[in-house]
Design brief:
mainly beta; Rieske Iron-sulfur Protein; six-stranded antiparallel beta sheet; 0% helix; three-stranded antiparallel beta sheet; globular; 46% strand; 103 residues
Amino acid sequence: MKVEITPLDKLPQDRGVRVKVGDHRIAMFRIGEDVYAIGDVCSHAEASLAEGEVFDGSVECPRHGSEFDLETGVPSSLPATAPVPTYDVSVEGGTVYLSLEDQ
């Protein structure tokens, strides 16, 4: 299922935005012209990753500092050890789309 999210120019640079699509809480990040989408809930402490600081292709959980890779969802630092889901994103005609597996 492909879902229209927002015009690309409405996504802020270098910080997260939380979106909800069905039962999915998703954190979206724009870095330059690239857009990433990962599960919004930290796998360690259920904090919102959309509220975390973005740097070097990762987002830092605002609660305990675990860093998650924006491409893979894999944590690169403790205390988190489990990855968060990632979602396919495309930009078509200046609009951001998110692809979700059909339920």
